[in-house]
Structures are given as C-alpha cells and as structure tokens.
Predict the 3D structure of the following.
Amino acid sequence: MSALHDLPGIETLCIHGGHTPDPNKAHLTPLYASSTYTFDSTEQGIDVFTGKEPGYIYGRFGNPTIEEAERKIALMEAYGLKDENGEALQLYAILHASGMAALTTMLLSNLKAGDKVITHPSLYGGTQEMLEKIFPGLGIQHLILDMRDEAAVSHVLETDKSIRMMYLETPANPTLQCVNLKSLSALAKKHGLVVCADNTFSTPLLQQPFAYDVDFVMHSTTKFLNGHGTAVGGVLVGRDAKRMDTDVKKMHRLLGGNSNSFEAFLLNNGMKTLPLRMERHCSNAMQVATFLEQHQAVSRVNYPGLPSHPDHALAAAQMKAFGSVISIELAGGFDAAVAFMNKLKVCTNAVSLGTCDTLVSHPASTTHYGVSREQRIAAGISDGLIRISIGLETVADLIADFEQALKN
Ligand SMILES: Cc1ncc(COP(=O)(O)O)c(C=O)c1O
C-alpha cells in the first residue's frame, strides 16, 4: 500500500493493507492454484530455497494469496503501536489451516517436555481439550487458575519454575470472562514466560494484545476476520520476526497445517469490511444484551458491555468496544434453553461465530462437549448456557425473534 499518511485510517488499511500489485494486473490477488513453483535454473532454485533470493517454492510453504492475508493481519494487529525504539511495530503472521493448527504451531514452537502452561478457566473447548488430552502425552502439563486473582498467579509463578507459558483468551469463549492483558503480561514477563493471547472474539480492531507486550496472538480466522462463514482458517502472529521467520515457520511447514489459496482469498475479501462489520456487530449486541437482561425469562446475561458484567471496567479499559458474542442462561434451565433455541426463526442454530447472520449454540453439547462436566461447571459453562453470536441483521428483527422464542 502506498500510504498518503504515515498511518492510514484503519478502514483503508483493512482494504489495501498487505496487497501487492499482481503481475498480470488483476485487481484482486488471484487464487494461486498451484502446488509448486518453477525455478529458472538449479542455481536459482538453490538461492530461493536457502533464502538468498525471495520467491515461492511449494504450496505448503505459502503463496501470494496467503501472504496477502498474512501481511494484512500483521498490519492490523500492529496498527498504531510502537516498538521499544519508538518505531512502528513490525509483526509477522503465518496463516494456518485452522485456529487449532495455529495454536499447535505456537505451543510446539515454544514448549518442551517438562514445561507447563498457565491459563484460566473458560477457554474455547478445543484449546482446553488440546491442553488436557494431547499435550500431557508429550510431557507438557497445564495449570488452570482464576487469573483475575493476580496475587494467586504471582504466588504460583514464584513457586513453580517449570511454568514457561501464559495463555490468555479474553473475552473467553463462551462465558465472556475477561482477564487483564496488561498486568498479567507484565507478571509473566517478570518470570520470563512466553505470553500468547487468543484474540478471536475481539479482532485487532477492538483489542490489540501487542500493546501489552505479549509475544504471540492467535485467531481463528474462521470467525470475524473472514466474517461470512465461508472458510476455516487460523493465524499466528508473532512479535519476534526473526523467530517467526525461522523456527516457528519451520514448525508450521513441518506440521503441515498450512492454509490454501481459496480460503486465503475468501479471508482477504472478508477482512476488507471488518471495520464496518464490527461496528454493527457491537451495536446490535449491546442492544440485544440490554433487551435480554431486562427479560424475566432470562436469569443471566454475560456480555462485557453491560455495566452488570463483573469484568465490565476491565473490558472498557482494554477493548475499544465489546464485541458480538453474548451468553445467557434462562430461568427454566436446560429444558427452557432447548425450547428457546428450537423456537428461533431469524437466528440460526449452529456452532461457530462472527458471521453476518446470528448464530445460536449450546456449548455444553457442542463446542465444549469434550470438556468434562465438572470442569465446564467450574468454568461457568452450565448445562443451560446458550451462546449467541449477534450478526448484522436489523436489530429489531433479532429482538423480535428472541422475544417470541422466550414466550411460554
Ligand atoms: C476463541 C476460539 N479460539 C480458537 C478456536 C479454534 O479455531 P478453529 O475452529 O478455526 O480451529 C475457536 C473455534 O471456535 C474459538 O472460538
């Protein structure tokens, strides 16, 4: 992007950021449907392979469609931030086949047998299952602690020197609990820990964890970044460009969790409307949350934008707006939740979130099915909890749909 100002507006960046002109003058970077790339000579192939010359090698290692998405996301996460020398922060992003693939690359690039991860309750169910069911087999354990109690976190970090990573998800899926990125990251750095934040729910537009010195940010791009529910994807963004370009990239290539042209193409186009979409997502969610909170059939509304949310002040300090995801509990518990979901007409009963249409799901039987009931309940994910990803429909239609579905 040839910038007219040092810092273009965020809308301009989301549209033009990361784009390089196509040699055949296609307006949009085309889908590179080629598994391999040719060399002019064996010598040139050696130069490209050894990094002496830029160029594409093999589809698993990346291609122009994928790289455009990577550059755009890195620019979005770094937007307006400075590095320790006061220069514009430069980040490095690697696109993956899914959020889980990005998480795997991040964990395996930073941890070895004997290391531990410290994290909090209420994480995306797949992340929790990964830490619980896969990593212990590699000798990597985890510790779940209520990270809103920073004295307890500090005590654990003082006493257990095998903790090497802090993993934060804020707001967390699906309880919308928030943790303090600034103070927890500072605490982690004091003890030499690697810090990673899952920024899926917020997107870089609402929250920038790199402002708080974290090392990595990951996203399920399947959600708001794509925005249309057309592709599964994930991204890992790192602060240390040299490490990202060497051992993290090596891990990504060898694990084989690469993205592909089609999904990257859809992601590139989706991200162009992210600022507009997030504005409407947030305003619709605030209105729906306010409506649900005053409804007598609803016993609890979790939305960080509501002053009644226990983490409202923290969310207001570290987020520009409060996002689109709400979770609720009904006075009638599980049975009422099932009946409510079955009666919805405008909203769609499906997992996932961040799409144009409003998606309603039941975490205990879907996204968190693999997490033990005991752990679910401890994390605040009751049997009757309903997660709602508020879409871009006319808000009056959404409220009318919820109102009719809440009637006995
Ligand atoms: C917060 C969060 N992180 C990570 C993931 C995993 O992403 P993916 O499904 O793209 O692998 C999800 C999926 O729902 C999520 O909600």
Notes: The chain has a mean pLDDT of 96. The chain has 15 helices and twelve strands. The two ends are 55 Å apart (CA to CA).
